[in-house]
Amino acid sequence: MAKHDKKEIGISAILNPVPVVMVSCAGKDITSEEGRPNIITIAWAGTINSEPPMVSISVRKSRLSHKLISQTGEFVINLVNKGLAKSCDYCGVKSGRDEDKFSACGLTAVKAKGLEYAYAISEAPVSISCKVKSVSELGSHDMFIAEVVAVTADSYLMDENGKLCLDKAKLVAYNHGEYFLLGEKIGFFGYSLASDDIFEKRMGYSRKERDKYKHIREQKPKNGKKY
Ligand SMILES: Cc1cc2nc3c(=O)[nH]c(=O)nc-3n(C[C@H](O)[C@H](O)[C@H](O)COP(=O)(O)O)c2cc1C
Q1: Which CATH number fits domain 18-181: 2.30.110.10, 3.40.640.10, 3.40.50.720, 3.40.50.300?
Q2: Of 14, 23, 43, 48, which one is least surrounded by beta carbons within 10 A?
Q3: How many Å apart are CA 38 and CA 22, to the nearest integer?
């Protein structure tokens, strides 16, 4: 059989890997059982614009979180690291209608920056406060399109110049029904054209280690523009 022999595998939303995030939200009345701060796990999430920064999440109408986000027009996307992975899965199989998922997971709800109603997860390495701009009914899911109004990150993720180093966050991705810890860094934006010096600086390889990563360097276009 030829190496690239192809088979049709049926039509589905097979785009992978995708981020998996814990979206936190709350109702206008947090003293009511359904309005208390809640968390829903979302895999259908994406970045959709740079300026202004905008994101989307797709949520089924049946979810309690759909009701809460529709009520307030607010939600927080909390990035998931290794320590949150189990809670992330849990919040994706239990509904806030039946229990307080913050307390079930031992997580802390903190008022989200830039928002009136929603809460962020204090334990998350990065929390992205979002205000809904529009909702599209797509079929199984409604897509909430939202603008990012604030972002908070754990200070251990900043370098001495205040630059965010997300590679330190041990983030989790979702691939065809399974969770994966992000692993080996194999390049960076534009690395295919980077000079040797910049490549080494960004990748952090010592000269001694160079041969170990030769296979990656050899993928660079020989006459490509360098920067
Ligand atoms: C890995 C994973 C990804 C999920 N992605 C979505 C999603 O993108 N949209 C959605 O509506 N539900 C998704 N779910 C299901 C909801 O998280 C789940 O139904 C949850 O219990 C709803 O909680 P709520 O009723 O408190 O809002 C996902 C679940 C898991 C485990």
Answers
A1: 2.30.110.10
A2: 14
A3: 10
SS3 category, 170: coil
Bridge partners of residue 150, in order along the sequence: 129
Enter the tokens of residue 161.
Answer: 């110049």
pLDDT digits (tens, 9 = 90+) for 157-176: 999 999 999 999 999 999 99
Backbone φ and ψ of 149, nearest 5°: -110, -15
Atom of ligand 1 nearest to the CA of 94: 21
Q: Is the pLDDT of residue 209 over 60?
A: yes
Q: Whose CA is nearest to atom 29 of ligand 1?
A: 92
Pocket of ligand 1 contains residue 21 by CB under 6 Å? no
Residue located via tokens 């307390």: 103
| The pair of three-digit structure tokens given for residue 76, joined into one six-digit string | 């927080």
| pLDDT tens readout for residues 60-74 | 999 999 999 999 999
Spell out the alpha helix ranges (H) of the chain.
64-72, 85-91, 101-104, 196-203, 214-217
Contact 42 CB / ligand 1 (< 6 Å):
yes
Question: Could you report the per-residue pLDDT of 14-60, keeping only the tens digit for each?
Answer: 999 999 999 999 999 999 999 999 999 999 999 999 999 999 999 99
For ligand 1, pick from 24, 39, 42 the residue to mutate: most ligand atoms within 8 Å of CB: 42
